[in-house]
Amino acid sequence: MTAMAQAQTQEHPNRWLEAFNPRVPLYRDAYNEYLMFVVSAIGAVAGTQVPLYLVMALTDLWDVWIFVAACVVFELFVIFFIARPRMKPRERIGWAALWAGTTAVMALAFYYLVAEPTL
Question: Is residue 16 part of a domain?
């Protein structure tokens, strides 16, 4: 690697990794808004259900409503405490409602299509 390329790499670390580093301040820009959308969507579709499915495989099949509630809480935790969006209070409420509802629907589908038949 040339000295110039190495200097540029050290000056501009990966923005993806910076977004999850609590020591790096986040700004409200297009990149971080897209990142928040991607993190929320991945979590709603499978990012919360699969880890909790693995926990259920070790413990026992949970009641459907316990699984759905755990998925929603897990999703909101990831969004607001790990991804740390820069939103106004009204936007946070709307974002939480949107992804809590989406996660609940996806968790219901996951439970009845994957968890119940296999555990």
Answer: no
* CA terminus-to-terminus distance, the chain: 51
Q: What is the pLDDT of residue 18?
A: 80
Residue 11 lies in a domain: no
Q: Which of 41, 39, 38, 47 is nearest to 110 (CA)?
A: 47
Domain span at residue 60? 27-118
Tokens of 23: 């020591």
pLDDT at position 10: 57
Domain count of the fold of the chain: 1
Per run of 10 residues, the mean pLDDT along the chain (length 119 residues) is 53 73 81 87 92 95 96 94 85 94 97 96
Tokens of 107: 């968790």
C-alpha closest to that of 43 among 93, 98, 88: 98
Count of C-beta atoms within a 10 Å radius of residue 38 = 12
pTM: 0.81
Place of tokens 């009845």: 112
Q: Identify whether 53 is part of a domain.
A: yes
Both tokens of residue 72? Answer: 């929603």
